[in-house]
Amino acid sequence: MTKYDYLSKLKAYLHPLPAKERNAALRYYDKYFTDAGPENEYNVIKNLGSPKELAEKILKNKNTISGMLNQTRSNVKKAKGKMTKSQRRTALLMTILLFPVWGGVTLIIALAAAALFIAAAGILLLMAVAGIVLFCMSIPYISNNTSVGLFFMGTGMVMASAAVLLFVPVMNLVFYIFKLTVKSLILLFNKLIGRKAVKV
Questions:
Q1: CB count, 10 Å around CB of 182?
Q2: Among 35, 39, 57, 72, which residue's beta carbon has the most beta carbons within 10 A?
């Protein structure tokens, strides 16, 4: 039985519940199946029992549905941790065999992050240089045409100062995106081989 079969049967058995409570329970169990991952569906179903048994428990305890959901949460956590050695070996083997794919994706993401960093730094540097050039160009105009000279001077100052002020936040954003990408890849790798997440 798959997650979808289980949830559709559970929905049918929970028909006596009001729609709001029924949908809340179904969302809850769907999230737990998702959190456990497709490789652990069997263990989750084994711990939950049949859809009919689970529905009976929920209907019996419908006044204390949050207590029922908390009990299920602990059962699902137990099921999630029961990845067999052979499943881990298979996941590790698949990770190694698929290295050209995920290694290539990792390289592309790293290159994209580097390109983003270089592009952001280049644009800000260009803004600063253009601002300085405009400021310098405005000096001769001030004596002949004051309004044009002041316009170029102001524009140059605004561009140069905007580039300087935006440099740190933009670089922080680029580093944040890069760090988030690395964390996501590590999380994906750990999920594939069944390890607990390691903080970076």
A1: 15
A2: 72
Round to whole Å and give the CA distance between 9 and 36. 19
Q: Which amino acid, one-letter code, is at 143?
A: S
With tokens 């316009």, the residue in question is: 151
Which residues, including other chains, have CB under 8 Å from residue 12's CB and lie 6 or more apart? Answer: 51
| Pairwise CA distance, residues 16 & 188, whole Å | 40
User: Can you tell me the distance from the alpha carbon of 150 to that of 127, in angstroms, rounded to the nearest whole number?
Assistant: 19
CA distance 170 to 29: 41
**Global pTM?**
0.43
Amino acid letter at 115? A
Burial class (CB in 10 A: 0-12, 13-18, 19+), 45: buried
What length is written for the chain? 200
11 within 8 A of 22, measured Cβ to Cβ: yes
Hey, what amino acid is at 153?
M
pLDDT tens digits along 142-196: 888 888 889 989 999 999 999 999 988 988 888 888 888 888 878 777 766 655 5
